[in-house]
Amino acid sequence: MEEKLRILVVDDDEVDRMTVRRVLTKAGVKMELSEVGDGKSAIALLSETSYDCVFLDYHLPAQDGLTLLQNLRLNNITVPVILLTGQEDEQIAVELMKAGATDYLSKSRLSSEILVQVLRNAIRVHRAEMQVALVNQQLRQTNELLIHKNQQLEAQQQHIELQNLRLIEASRLKSQFIATMSHELRTPMNAIIGFSQLLLRPKCGELTHQQRDMVERILNNGKHLLMLLNEVLDFSKLEAGRLDLKPQIFDLSKVVNSTVQEMRSLAKEKNLSLFMQINLQNPVVFNDPTRIRQILTNLLSNAIKFTESGGIGVEVKELSENQVEIAVCDTGIGISPADLRKIFEAFRQVDQSLTRKYPGTGLGLPIIKALLQMMGGNISVESRLGEGSVFQIQLPRQISSSIQQGSDGTLSSSHTSARKNFWKQQEIPRFAQEGVKRKSRDR
């Protein structure tokens, strides 16, 4: 052994101590050797000094080696102990090993080779045990830390769950409040609109030009405010799951045509052209005509609002025997790619500032998307800044109670040539025409 070992010999017999010292020296053990003759002195020395190994005589005055060994372990002194005994008794050996002895030797068998081997093994085993004990202690500490962290996480999870419950309740109360207020505000707003229309009738008396202008402003702003209230009310119902479709059989082409005609005056005020193309072999569908009209009205309102010059096109066509599509195209300001992902979020507008040019609640497109999902349809959009936008909605010809949420908005087209000719005839964004050609090539 190259390292210098600190060894303690506990034996009341001077000759035996000298024998151990001589054997260790002969074996070439580098050591710092200490010797005591009784157990009390051994315990005192081991309590103050750290030793690599102890050679302990089994027969000591006042107490035997087994008792001393037990006292050492009771005092948490974990030094490796090799018992030296003058008799070979297997029962004694078993008791010594149970008490914590690392090994034992008969004094009659002491030799350099055996002593060095036993010493080496004792130290190696002890250090391995110490390493295992250290690892176990670290594992216990880590386990305690993990338990503590787990308790903290459980507490945080409970707190989060409680907060979620509070947020759900707050959201429910908010939706209920908004729905109630929207419903309550509609009554006086309908009265304002009704009386304004009544004042504009000739039988109620002629109004001066200034008076008529003021009443018309009241009427127009009342209608606009009612539209906003209806959007908020519909959104609240959708959020609460209380908005139901009322499907019936109707002529889709007639609903689209009447809706476009109603919006024509708004387009005319901005000198915008409004074109319509209906390519339906069978215009009969089973759906909610009121909600279809609401969807188309919202899309046309947006197209007119965000278009300053050019035109707006509406096309209705059959995608398949069981599916129809309505497309609304404009030459407006367009939408950037970064904003395309946001426009279907509730209360989200491209311009969120208080001084924005285009007013609105930001609920129109989310309501459209939610209604289409209820119908089993979907909506997709293609747009370029400064050139315009194309919104396409796909609808099943017949909705049912088993309809699931709509798909991911993937574009699906047929009758490409008819659409291409229609777009070419109108003042429609060039990129929309190119998109039609590109889809045709892809197929």
Helix content: 40-55%
Q: Give the helix tally.
A: 12
The CATH class label of the largest domain is: Alpha Beta
| SS-based class | alpha/beta
Radius of gyration: 47 Å
The rounded distance between the terminal residues' Cα atoms is 84 Å
DSSP strand (E) fraction? Answer: 15-25%
| Quantity of strands, as a count | 12
Under CATH, the topology of the largest domain is which?
A: Heat Shock Protein 90
Outline, from the CA principal axes?
rod-shaped
CATH architecture of the largest domain: 2-Layer Sandwich
User: Major sheet: size, sense and barrel closure?
Assistant: 5 strands, parallel
Write the CATH homologous superfamily of the largest domain: Histidine kinase-like ATPase, C-terminal domain
- The residue ranges in which pLDDT falls below 50 over 5 or more consecutive positions are 351-356, 402-427, 431-443
- Any idea how many domains? 3
Residue-averaged pLDDT, rounded? 79
Provide the succession of SSEs.
Answer: EHEHEHEHEHHEHEEHEEHHEEHH
